[in-house]
Design a protein that fits this description.
Monomer. By secondary structure, the chain is of the alpha/beta class. 28% of the residues lie in helices and 29% in strands. It is built from 12 helices and 25 strands. The strands form 7 sheets. The protein has a 4-stranded mixed beta sheet. A 4-stranded mixed beta sheet has the order 2-15-17-16. Strands 4-5-3-14 form a 4-stranded mixed beta sheet, covered by helices on one side. Strand 6, helix 3 and strand 7 form a beta-alpha-beta unit. The protein binds shikimate-3-phosphate (S3P) and phosphoenolpyruvate.
Length: 441
């Protein structure tokens, strides 16, 4: 497996585009595959996770054709038109693909067997098996909660009124997608708002979906069995990928980077608020809307960061950005404390334990908490010299690639291959800006 070596080189200078948003890309393929007619998607993220979604939708009968870089044409089968695939579907490393697809399948009378890589096979699926079983789907899962699993959807789906037990857009979306081919109104209630790409895209495709605040609970109601209209959709840049550059350009002295066309969905922008709270110099330009999502150009100029202990940002608005934020905290001056992050333990890896181990291996003093982490910042360059175990987690790999740019000794990432799941151009783009990254095959 290819390892990655990161050592300081130059300030990051330039203007770049980050790849398409992974969450929006998944949904654009899934929903256009259920539309009646031809959809055209541009700016699609062509990372392994999204390609797994494309493979799954083809296997269930939709026609998806790649016509150019990031440009795909999808001919959908209509809501209710999915068919049983003739083989097991390998979902690779992608939790979003797996859980949202389970929702789609739950209200189609088809049978699908899914598996994934070692990381995905270790992640809990009970959080979607439980509500989808109430819809009427039948699951046969390893230990009742892990992949490989077989799901048999029902031809008599029940519309749920479901309150999500944790802040999860994947769980919310799985229940909503099950509601697509279910008569009646499917209701999902969220105590904590999570990314609303599903809601926005369904509305833009003609579904009758409403979102209300009822006594502090976000209530989403979807009328089942719509005819979804095909779309011409441009996918905005992924702020979760942009986050690596926001942190890198903040911590590497002399950097000045502009990121074009970044999706700034209000339920995804916590990383910008968090970095600003630490002293980052980030400005937003050219705000506009793209495919129903707010986007803008984001400029970041290097600035000294200070630790933060009472971050007043909702974790669900930056849940995937905590690994790289921890690296920013390692370079900042002073102590940082992050809590309320138990969900990080069930991502591609246990991101609290793996980040703590990687930071310690590179000379950073950390204390791992049940639901968070304390980090003693170095106020500049960190010792470095450690090898980080990524555990098949792309965000661990990229976070330590960034940290190595502020290390006295090289930071080694044991496996760079997971980066292909969400940001295939990461090394090329970072080195083009001035970073010192080398991939060793
Ligand atoms: O709905 C989505 O596209 C996602 C939701 C989040 O997961 P949870 O909903 O489980 O928090 C996030 O971690 C993931 O990268 C993408
Ligand atoms: C958790 C992530 O994705 P998924 O759940 O789709 O694997 C991520 O991209 O950080």
């Amino acid at each position: 497996m290819p390892s990655l070596v990161s050592l300081p080189k130059n300030p990051l200078i330039g203007t770049v585009k980050v790849p398409g948003d992974k969450s929006v890309s998944h949904r654009s393929l899934m929903l256009s595959a259920l539309a009646v007619g031809e959809s055209r998607i541009t700016g699609l993220l062509e990372g392994e996770d999204v390609l797994a979604t494309a493979h799954a939708m083809r296997a269930m009968g939709a026609t998806l054709n790649r016509v150019d870089d990031g440009e795909w044409v999808v001919n959908g089968v209509g809501v209710g038109g999915l068919m049983s695939p003739d083989d097991i579907i390998d979902m690779g490393n992608s939790g979003t693909s797996t859980r949202l697809l389970m929702g789609l399948i739950a209200s189609h009378a088809i049978t699908v067997t899914m598996t994934g890589d070692a990381s995905l096979r270790s992640r809990p699926m009970g959080r979607v098996i439980d509500p989808l079983s109430e819809v009427g789907a039948v699951f046969k899962a390893r230990d009742d909660k892990f992949l490989p699993l077989t799901v048999t959807g029902t031809d008599m789906p029940v519309p749920l009124d479901y309150t999500t037990p944790m802040a999860s857009a994947q769980v919310k979306s799985a229940v909503l997608l099950a509601g697509l081919n279910t008569p009646g109104i499917t209701t999902v209630r969220e105590k904590v708002a999570t990314r609303d790409h599903t809601e926005r895209m369904l509305k833009s495709m003609g579904a009758d979906i409403t979102v209300q605040d009822e006594d502090g609970i976000r209530v989403i109601r979807l009328v089942g069995q719509p005819e979804l209209c095909p779309v011409n959709l441009e996918v905005p840049g992924d702020i979760s990928s942009a986050a690596f550059l926001l942190v890198a350009a903040s911590i590497i002295p002399g950097s000045d980077v502009t990121l074009e066309n970044v999706g700034l969905n209000p339920l995804r922008t916590g990383i910008i608020e968090a970095l600003k709270a630490m002293g980052a110099s980030i400005s937003i330009h050219n705000e506009r809307e793209l495919g129903g999502e707010p986007v803008a150009d984001v400029q970041v100029i290097a600035a000294p960061l200070k630790g933060v202990v009472n971050l007043e940002v909702d974790p669900s608005t930056m849940i995937d950005e905590f690994p790289v934020l921890f690296c920013a905290a390692a370079v900042a001056s002073g102590v940082s404390r992050f809590t309320g992050l138990e969900e990080l333990r069930v991502k591609e890896s246990d991101r609290l334990a793996v980040m703590a181990a990687g930071l310690r291996a590179n000379g950073i003093k950390v204390t791992e908490l049940d639901d968070g982490i304390d980090i003693e910042g170095c106020g500049g360059f960190i010792p470095g010299g450690g090898t980080v175990q990524t555990h098949l987690d792309h965000r661990i790999a990229m976070s330590f690639a960034i940290l190595g740019q502020m290390a006295n000794k090289a930071v080694m990432v044991d496996d760079a291959s997971p980066i292909q799941t969400s940001f295939p151009a990461f090394v090329r783009l970072m080195t083009g800006l001035g970073a010192g990254l080398d991939v060793l095959e």
